[in-house]
TrEMBL record:
This is Aldo/keto reductase. The keyword Oxidoreductase applies. The lineage of its organism: Bacteria, Bacillati, Actinomycetota, Coriobacteriia, Coriobacteriales. PANTHER family: NAD(P)-LINKED OXIDOREDUCTASE SUPERFAMILY PROTEIN, NADH-SPECIFIC METHYLGLYOXAL REDUCTASE-RELATED. InterPro entries: AKR, AKR_Detox_Biosynth, NAD(P)_OxRdtase_dom_sf, NADP_OxRdtase_dom. GO terms for molecular function: oxidoreductase activity.
């Protein structure tokens, strides 16, 4: 496993993080990633830890608490060996998704997260999405700052936020980490990622495997359930993106044969070899997936092959399609 040292806290974190959105299963609105087995999920998380991963990312909205419960079971007896990142400010209410970061809402979510995770503190507490109900970011930061002062939270962060909001938050709180999308098929946040690096804010990237499409496991247009997140949240399985990515996979196939490594490891190395990526989220549901992801760090892509991949992405206009 490769590790990076966080810029503000000095904490050592693994180059990949356990992503747990999928293991939350379906929510009350029907959204999910297909069938999930909790025991498989727990074993997959433990396999990632055995492979050197020391950071697990979750959120209360993933399966409306179920993901946090699964993580809580997976870390039982080894809480001191892992860092836990969870979130606030995004939940389902009356059948609709809500982005609310009012202090009273944050505190309610925090208490519930601690119970589900079976812990008395979290290492990283992140705002999941910008508040859309008018709550000033300064009020939210004052609230989570108090949690940090009390020792209930060690580090603070933001997800899915633009530079302006990160700057406002940074004016009133130490922002240790920002979580933004980044992969070969989604470079929409590239300028903000580089800005974070320049301003000593660590970066946790999500969508590293393009909702699974960069593993090469799906070569024909799938028929997902209409509420499956791979069909509703991501554009990769829709045309024209799907066909463009299938063409791009041919270049990944060439490199897979050259290195004797699976496509998922190519995608992981491409992301984590970037200087501005502190750690990259990789979702796992099975031990085999966990072991494959961790093994990515037994080798590296050459600069020439990274350039080859980038040139093909440009030729196919894939990165420009996700704005």
């Amino acid at each position: 496993m490769r590790y990076k040292t966080m810029k503000k806290s000095g904490e050592k974190i693994s180059a990949i993080t356990v992503g747990t959105w999928a293991i939350g299963g379906k929510n009350s609105m029907g959204g999910g990633y297909g069938e999930i087995d909790d025991q498989d999920s727990i074993e997959a998380i433990k396999a990632m830890i055995d492979g050197g991963v020391n950071l697990i990312d979750t959120a209360p909205i993933y399966g409306e608490g179920h993901s946090e419960e699964v993580v809580g079971k997976a870390i039982e007896g080894i809480r001191d060996k892992v860092l836990i990142a969870t979130k606030y400010g995004s939940y389902i209410e009356n059948g609709k998704g809500v982005h609310c970061s009012r202090p009273d809402s944050v505190l309610r979510e925090f208490d519930a997260s601690l119970k589900r995770l079976n812990t008395d503190y979290v290492d990283m507490y992140l705002m999941h999405w910008p508040d859309d109900l008018g709550t000033p970011i300064e009020d939210t930061m004052a609230c989570v700052n108090k949690l940090k002062e009390q020792g209930a939270v060690r580090m603070l962060g933001l997800c899915n936020s633009d530079r302006a909001l990160i700057e406002r938050a940074s004016a009133v709180a130490d922002i240790d980490i920002v979580q933004l999308p980044f992969s070969m098929v989604n470079q929409s946040a590239l300028s903000d990622l580089k800005w974070c690096e320049e301003n000593d804010i660590d970066v946790m990237t999500w969508g590293s495997l393009g909702a699974g499409i960069l593993t090469g496991a799906v070569r024909e247009k799938p028929n997902f359930d209409e509420k499956d997140f791979r069909a509703t949240f991501y554009p990769f399985y829709q045309e024209p993106m799907f066909s463009k990515i299938q063409e791009f996979l041919k270049t990944m196939d060439v490199l897979s044969e050259k290195y004797g490594k699976p496509l998922a490891q190519i995608a992981i190395n491409w992301s984590t070899q970037k200087s501005f990526v502190s750690t990259a989220l990789t979702g796992v549901r099975k031990v085999s997936e966990a072991q494959e992801n961790c093994a990515a760090f037994e080798w590296s892509l050459s600069d020439e092959d990274i350039a080859l991949l980038d040139a093909e992405l440009t030729r196919l206009e894939i990165t420009e399609a996700v704005a």
